[in-house]
Amino acid sequence: MTKFTDVRLIRRMLRDAHHRNHSPLLTILHWHYVRAGELFSIIPLRGLADHTVNGGFPFDLPALHPFFVGNAGLLPRLKSLLRMLASSTQEFVMNG
Predict the structure, then answer these.
(1) Are 28 and 9 in contact (CB under 8 A)?
(2) Whole-prediction pTM value?
(3) Which residues of 77-96 are buried (b: 16+ CB within 10 A; e: fewer)?
């Protein structure tokens, strides 16, 4: 079962890539700030809201799938970034 926070992270990756030109890695590195703010401000105060919207629907993952696959998707860019990081890490260890 996929956790709601995982789906939110995926949606945030798409939004950051489209609107902020951030890589998925940058979104993941920044995620702990987002989660800390949520735990401090949003979750404790949500009982005071007049209305809430549950964004964790079962169709989220299939609906988001096309944005991550194919040549224009985020996963090919993420895979190339991970390959680049792996090769630079290997080069650093060998030349270190």
Answers:
(1) yes
(2) 0.60
(3) bbeeeeeeeeeeeeeeeeee
Residues 19, 63, 80, 90: what is their CA dihedral angle, to the nearest 10 degrees?
110
Give residue 79's identity as a one-letter amino acid code: K
C-alpha closest to that of 27 among 10, 43, 48: 10
- Give which of 18, 28, 31, 25 is closest to 67, Cα–Cα: 18
**H-helix or E-strand containing 24?**
helix 24-37
Contact at 8 Å (CB) between 9 and 31? yes
> Residue 15 and residue 72: Cα distance in Å, rounded?
15
What digits encode the pLDDT tens for the residues 7-50? 788 889 888 988 999 988 899 899 999 989 989 998 899 889 89
Could you tell me if 43 and 25 are in contact, meaning their C-beta atoms sit under 8 angstroms apart? Answer: no
Asked if 10 and 64 touch (Cβ cutoff 8 Å), the reply is: yes
